[in-house]
Amino acid sequence: MADTNDSGQNSHYPYAPVTWAAVLFAILFGFTLAIHAYQIFRYKTWYMWVMIVAIAMEVIGFITRVISIHLTEPLWPIIIAQTGLVVAPAFLAAQYYMIVGRIMSYVGKEYGYINHTKITKIFVGADVFAILTQSSGGALLASADGDLDKMKLAQKVLLFGLALQVVTFGIFAFVAIAFDVRSSRSPALRVFKEEMKSMRKLWFAFYVGSALITARSIYRTVEFGDIKFTPGAKDAQGYTYTHEWPMYAFDSIPIFISVVFFAVWNPGHWLPTRKGLRMDGTYEEISEGRKYICCGPRKEPRYHAPAPMTGDNVEVALHPVRRR
After folding, report:
1. Measured between alpha carbons, how far is 282 from 288 in angstroms, rounded to an integer?
2. Residues with Cβ < 8 Å from 254, sequence gap 6 or more?
3. Which of 66, 74, 141, 280 is the most buried (most CB within 10 A)?
4. In angstroms, rounded to a whole number, what is the distance separating the alpha carbons of residues 193 and 63?
5. Which residue, among 170, 129, 168, 136, has the nearest Cα to 155 in the 3D structure?
6. What residues pair up with 303 in beta bridges, in sequence order?
């Protein structure tokens, strides 16, 4: 049994946490982790490694949550649990940036307001900053141990990180929607009916996942923003902070659904393994310098025309990446 305080609450939490829920979600996320790892090796979609990190953080977060429920003296389990569960969705958002960048590269960058090569640099860069901010706030909150001044500082840091993530993701969603609308209305892409139909599946998974991630971020913002600090009180107050069920209903379940959607509609089914191959058969050459974030010259992409489509290779050119 976990040690509890005078009110019957676990000393790490402002409520009496249940073990079975944390165990259940550790198993569920562990199952999806195995599926995504298998799909990465099957389709050679190495760019999906960020998804693995996000899911692994959820698994570790729930495992250490179970430990923190039963071991109330050491702080390390609750610090790891809080940090992992708060930060993991930010990694998931970073993966969404990469997936949409791949879709833009495949369909054609000319339909986007922002070049797909800048998607990763701009939005993932902002997301990394949000991750670092949320990690600091989550660790600070978990280690506060009743120190209200520390908790107030953690609240401000977390709110800033979450607000940054919501704003960044909102801007990115606008860019993605604009690209989707412009490309789906393009007469030049009507000949690629099957490919565009496949893209609709990826866009569907993206839209559902984006809505869930945004809702989760709004919930976390409300949760930490609603915390009230009463002088003389041992613990902070606030309904969503002092009750366990909202975390599972508005955080764990939405993130799990988001992960499942991209397991069912995995980008490896329809997108090229190597970034640069376009739907129209041309190839955007990615220079060696642009393969690195911090070094090497940044060169403009060059396009290679496809080989003449005659005879049997017409079908291959028009359907280069579909896999089952």
Report:
1. 19
2. 212, 213, 215, 216
3. 141
4. 45
5. 136
6. 284
Residue 63 Ramachandran class (φ > 0 left, ψ -120 to 50 alpha, else beta):
alpha
Instruction: List the one residue out of 103, 29, 32, 46 whose CA is nearest residue 262.
Output: 32
Distance CA 141, CA 149 (A): 10
Burial classification of residue 295, based on how many CB atoms lie within 10 Å of its CB (0-12 exposed, 13-18 middle, 19 or more buried): exposed
Contact 43, 49 (CB under 8 A): no
> In this predicted model, what pLDDT tens digit does every residue of 7-46 receive, in sequence order?
445 578 888 999 999 999 999 999 999 999 999 999 999 9
Average pLDDT over residues 63-72: 93
Could you tell me what percent of the chain has a pLDDT over 90? 45
User: What is the distance between the alpha carbons of residues 143 and 129, in angstroms, rounded to a whole number?
Assistant: 21
Contact 138, 158 (CB under 8 A): yes
Closest C-alpha to 319, from 102, 41, 309:
309
Residues in the chain, overall count: 324
From CA 292, how far away is CA 94, in angstroms rounded? 17
At 127, the amino acid letter reads: D
